[in-house]
Design goal:
723 residues; mainly beta; Immunoglobulin-like; four-stranded antiparallel beta sheet; 1% helix; globular
């Protein structure tokens, strides 16, 4: 079985004034690469999971996201660096400037929010040209003055503005869907290519680059390039042996005026003005997605953004770390906490387990099954993980059980289960309960699956949408039939009062410590206390939205849910019994309001699954996981000082062990890899570490973890190395 482990980043020391106990954390899947810029020994990489500062030589990353920096949004679409080394970052929520210490966000007056930026280029006196696919072209002086060229020149082809570039005469060139334009500061010139009417040739103005001679290079279908020198067009031959590779996807002009072009078929080729060189052929195993970003650095080393960021080393391509988590996919569908306080998260691409800063990822190759999504995660008292997987081909659902080593499958072919399973829960006796069509409920006692049919059979359309168990071990099933309780012997159905909420669309159910049932619907929140129904809607309460997808309560009894007008553009909402408090993308560290699941862990941290990763929130500061806190009975302990410490210095570890106890101290980097290990024994032990690894190489500055391990105890803490 293949596991991929990555240590999470709790805080970034390169960002000034970040609290040691932050209120928000973002764990993201930064494998989609949208843009790259170079600054000295570093690459700045824009991803769907934030911004990454990557050391070009050792691959060490520093992660910036909404929760640990002033980045306006985790979807980074453009980067430009001006003459003062200010980083200008385009996001879905506006323009950000980062000078290495301070973050600032700018938006044009007419787009105070939701200013989605596609491209940024730096012009004269560090002015910025900013292109938006839907908001046209703006110029910004970097301080306060914006010029909206969409208003000044309404006849220009602003819609679908895709790319911008500046030549040596400070002319701005703009590529849109089907158009090439030049702006000299006074007038716009539109150029039509001579191949417009050709049946077999299509010039793609969405991707253009300018070489050192101010030639404009544009990709052409199929597999070739067009050069425009300001007067004449020259079409260069098709890439040899790649006639079927389709449209160009990305262009890049390197420092030697070589033109690099990737195609939708997965090819990458280099053109030196005369000859083509095929660099990557379609089907190369290391790349499982399109080659959407191509970059060649000042050392002429190629970098490719595909299913992650890859660097060419000799004839090989090495994947770089651009995610601050081990999530196998971007959208997190379901979250659960097990009895060891580990957090499990599912995506459309697999499952991740988070434990004490270490991530373990399980994909379809690990599980041995193909699937399209994993949902309804839960764990039993023996530590087994249970979930439902959904497959399109063939259309089916299966139940999986994972004991830490083996995956067991339960479905209609291996058990007397229906083809479609919608929900799953586990009671206090460790029985597994599932809900299916026809208002059918099945119980698994560890040996057999038994169907618990309702007293009167219902049509298959009356499926059980949600299922849960209360403190008395009653099973509650929710569906279009209403709410039903099974007490171990018989069913009781409680149709809700339709005068409270007419909608029959149920999205979530939560059973609190008082055994009240909370139901999220498309018309508000229903509450059932075992006898009476009540409702919270925008008509009768301060609830901000009626569309409620996920529900849970924290250890203080506050209700948390996702409220929205539809399945997006809403808020994370807290209800303390009196006040409704909303957290959105503008007033919090929440990276997305497309929320799929919410849980509260043992330490009262709120874990929020979204279509853009996981956010964690705690009003009093994120409480660390179990290995960052002392056990109730401390059998050994460790501390380190000074912390942070500098590369040129050393750190001292002090342990307190029982007299007959031995153990080890291990230091891990952000990738979860062992850096250095020491053996310790005796009641009091001190040792010093000079920040060098097992091969006597100096460790880079950043976040590390050190773990004390004995036979009876493990304790993990964080340490920081400064430059």
């Amino acid at each position: 079985m293949k596991h991929s482990c990555t240590a999470i980043v709790f805080l970034l020391v390169t960002i000034c004034l970040v609290a040691q106990t932050p209120n928000w954390l973002n764990y993201t899947y930064g494998e989609y690469i949208s843009c790259i810029a170079e600054e000295g020994n570093f690459l700045w990489v824009g991803t769907n999971g934030g911004l990454v500062k990557l050391n070009k030589f050792n691959g060490n990353p520093v992660f910036y996201n909404k929760a640990n920096s002033g980045l306006a949004d985790n979807t980074v679409s453009a980067i430009a660096i001006d003459s003062q080394n200010n980083k200008w970052i385009g996001t879905n929520q506006g323009l950000c400037k980062f000078d290495g210490t301070v973050w600032q966000t700018y938006n044009p007056p007419e787009h105070s929010q939701y200013y989605m930026i596609q491209r940024i280029v730096v012009g004269n006196q560090d002015s910025l040209w900013i292109g938006s696919e839907y908001a046209g072209l703006h110029k910004f002086d970097g301080i306060s003055t914006w010029i909206d060229y969409s208003t000044l020149y309404p006849n220009a082809p602003w819609y679908y503005l895709k790319t911008l570039s500046i030549d040596s005469n400070n002319n701005l060139w703009m590529g849109t869907y089907g158009s090439l334009c030049k702006f000299d500061g006074t007038a716009w010139t539109n150029y039509e290519d001579p191949y417009t009417d050709a049946d077999s040739i299509y010039v793609d103005y969405e991707h253009l680059v300018i070489d050192s001679q101010d030639n404009i290079w544009v990709g052409v279908y199929p597999n070739s390039l067009v050069k425009f020198d300001g007067t004449d067009w020259t079409c260069f031959p098709t890439i040899p042996n790649l006639e079927t590779s389709g449209f160009p996807l990305c262009l890049f002009c390197d420092g030697l005026d070589n033109i690099w072009m990737s195609t939708y078929a997965g090819n990458l080729a280099k053109f030196n003005g005369t000859d083509w060189t095929i660099v990557i052929e379609s089907g190369t195993s290391v790349f499982t997605s399109y080659l959407e970003e191509v970059f060649v650095d000042s050392q002429n080393i190629p970098w490719v953004g595909s299913n992650g960021l890859f660097k060419q080393t000799g004839t090989n391509w090495t994947k770089q770390t651009t995610s601050n988590s081990g999530l196998p996919g971007r959208a997190v569908i379901s979250i659960a906490e097990d009895y060891q306080n580990c957090i499990w998260m599912s995506t459309y691409s697999g499952i991740a387990r988070y434990n004490c800063g270490i991530w373990t990822t399980y994909t379809s190759s690990d599980i041995g099954l193909s699937f399209d999504s994993v949902y309804n995660l839960t764990t039993d008292q023996q530590g087994n993980l249970w979930c439902i997987i959904y497959s399109y081909e063939p259309y089916s659902t299966k139940i999986l059980r994972f004991d830490g080593v083996n995956w067991t499958v339960f479905d209609s072919t291996t058990s007397n289960l229906p083809l479609w399973i919608y929900c799953l829960t586990i009671d206090s006796q460790n029985n597994v309960w599932i809900g299916a069509g026809g208002a059918k409920v099945y119980k698994y006692d560890g040996i057999d699956w038994t169907m618990m049919q309702f007293p009167a059979p219902l049509p298959n359309s009356n499926y059980v949408e949600k299922i849960g168990t209360d403190s008395q071990n009653n099973i509650w099933a929710l569906g279009s039939f209403g709410l039903a309780k099974y007490d171990g012997t018989s069913w009781t159905v409680y149709p809700h009062d339709y005068s409270l909420i007419a909608s029959g669309d149920y999205f979530s159910m939560y059973i609190d410590a008082q055994d009240s049932i909370w139901i999220g619907t498309s018309g508000g929140i229903l509450k059932f206390d075992g006898a009476n129904w009540s409702a919270y809607t925008t008509d009768n309460s301060g609830i901000p939205y009626n569309y409620v997808i996920a529900l849970c309560k924290d250890n203080s009894g506050n209700l948390w849910f996702n409220g929205c007008e539809k399945e997006e553009n809403g808020s994370l909402v807290k209800f303390d019994g009196t006040t409704w408090t909303c957290f959105d993308e503008f007033n919090s560290g929440l990276q997305s309001t497309s929320i799929t699941s919410i849980i509260v862990d043992f330490y009262d941290n709120i874990w929020i699954g979204t279509y853009d990763g996981v956010a964690v929130y705690n009003e009093t500061g994120i409480v660390a996981t179990e290995d960052d806190t002392q056990s109730p009975v401390v059998v050994s302990s460790i501390k380190a000082y000074p912390n942070p410490f500098r590369q040129s210095g050393a750190i001292t570890f002090e342990t307190a062990l029982k007299t007959d106890e031995t153990g080890s101290i291990t230091i891990y980097n952000l990738k979860g890899q062992k850096v250095k290990s020491f053996e310790v024994n005796g009641k009091i032990s001190k040792l010093s570490w000079n920040s060098k690894d097992e091969n006597n190489r100096l460790s880079a500055s950043g976040i590390y973890f050190y773990r004390l391990s004995t036979k009876k105890h493990q304790e993990t803490k964080k340490l920081v190395i400064l430059e």
